[in-house]
Amino acid sequence: MVKAALDPLVNKTLNIRLFHSVENVSDLRKKIMSGQLECCLVNPKLIVDPFQLVVAANKALTAKNRTTKTIFTEILFNLSVSKHITKSLQQFGITDDCRDLLVVTVGDDDSRVLSEIKGTEVELGALEEIRDLGAVKKAYKIGPEEGATSTIVDSVVSRIATKDFISH
Amino acid sequence: MEGFELFRQGAEGRIFKGVYLGKPAIAKERFVKKYRHPDLDSHLTKERIKSESRSIIRCKSAGIRTPALYLVDFNRRTIFMEYFENSIVVKDFIAQASNEVISKLALKIGAVLGKMHANSIIHGDLTTSNMLLVNKNGQKSYSNLQDLELIFIDFGLSHVESSAEDKGVDLYVLERALISTHSTASEIFDQVLEGYKLENKSGFKEVLAKFKEVQARGRKRTMVG
């Protein structure tokens, strides 16, 4: 897992965990949608580096006004460069047939969320095998010229940071 | 600002250095201008922060390395962005480099600048203090130009404009900056133009003509008649 400190103003920690072969995905989704489970499930295919989630979550937590209903949907929304809420949530969220997933929680203790997940936790380094760089470049509209100079993570987080006023 | 220390101070704002989200970062905060109406002030600041971020992203898309942006916060009037730890300001690099190396570097600067202008980005404050050389291997060594990557910073005065006039002025600002800081300014600038020509072939002639015009009259257009 990765624990990341967010903006000093927010003064909260972000917990990111990666799970393999999760069996109760549809159950988890239902619980999140009904508000019983306070976490955000992200499709690991489009995540290059945990830092990508840190920047998106930090933006969600420091924002004065949110675009979506909860902090967790806001994280998913921020991950996408699209301004379309449904589209963003579908793009970065998970579907019932996903088996690998990233679990993002806010706060010191994420044990309640953890107890609900029926799957194996793995190191975040395993992201490297799951992520689809081609799909990431497409999702963030990173062309070949840009890929040659900046690292993908830099390009991705810079787009997330500016999504509300630059159309990518 | 918590965890940050003052790094630079300018007329428009302050730059703090520290660690943000676990990365070495700078926070660029723009001052509240007390002499302006608060609404106008926050509006202008917001627009400037937006335009600075926009240019940084636009450069990235064009393949020009710029700092990564971590958070743009209009309430705090601050941009949090990447700090390059293993870097040297081009100004200091030139002061200690041989003429041969400087000439190669100038060519590189010109090429990146040509690319920037070809993509309609006007930097607005081209000086050798606003260019960094970063060691690609993460070491604190700046002896081999081939290991160094050129990075443009401070897009605070930048804008997007395709006119040759603004590009000419941009070049003129660089020429003046070179003259005031480096003894071999004219050689450096000639090389910059050479590099520029390589990356902005189609626009070079027109921009050069405008540059000569600006050189003759100064940065501001004459408002007579």
Automatic annotation (TrEMBL), chain A:
Subcellular location: Nucleus
Biological process, per Gene Ontology: tRNA threonylcarbamoyladenosine modification
UniProt keyword annotations, A-Z: Nucleus, tRNA processing
InterPro entries hit by this protein: CGI121/TPRKB, CGI121/TPRKB_sf
Primary localization class, coarse: nucleus
CC terms in the record's Gene Ontology section: cytosol; EKC/KEOPS complex; nucleus
SUPFAM superfamilies recorded: PF0523-like
Family listed: Belongs to the CGI121/TPRKB family.
Name of protein: EKC/KEOPS complex subunit Tprkb-like Protein
Organism, scientific name: Tribolium castaneum
Source lineage: Eukaryota, Metazoa, Ecdysozoa, Arthropoda, Hexapoda
UniProtKB/TrEMBL annotation, chain B:
SUPFAM superfamilies: Protein kinase-like (PK-like)
Transmembrane portions of the chain: none
Principal EC category: transferase
Name of the protein: non-specific serine/threonine protein kinase
UniProt xrefs under PROSITE patterns: PROTEIN_KINASE_DOM (PS50011), PROTEIN_KINASE_TYR (PS00109)
Superkingdom of origin: Eukaryota
One GO BP: tRNA threonylcarbamoyladenosine metabolic process
Gene (UniProt): GLEAN_03335
Family: Belongs to the protein kinase superfamily. BUD32 family.
Predominant cellular place of this UniProt entry's protein: nucleus
Entry keyword set: Activator, ATP-binding, Chromosome, Cytoplasm, Hydrolase, Kinase, Nucleotide-binding, Nucleus, Phosphoprotein, Serine/threonine-protein kinase, Transcription, Transcription regulation, Transferase, tRNA processing
InterPro entries: Bud32 (IPR022495), Kinase-like_dom_sf (IPR011009), Prot_kinase_dom (IPR000719), Tyr_kinase_AS (IPR008266)
Keyword Ribosomal protein listed: no
GO MF annotation: an example: hydrolase activity
Reactions it catalyzes: L-seryl-[protein] + ATP = O-phospho-L-seryl-[protein] + ADP + H(+); L-threonyl-[protein] + ATP = O-phospho-L-threonyl-[protein] + ADP + H(+)
Gene3D superfamilies per UniProt: Phosphorylase Kinase, domain 1, Transferase(Phosphotransferase) domain 1
GO cellular component: chromosome; cytosol; EKC/KEOPS complex; nucleus
Enzyme Commission number(s): 2.7.11.1
Boundaries of every Protein kinase domain copy: 1-225
Localisation per UniProt entry: Chromosome; Cytoplasm; Nucleus
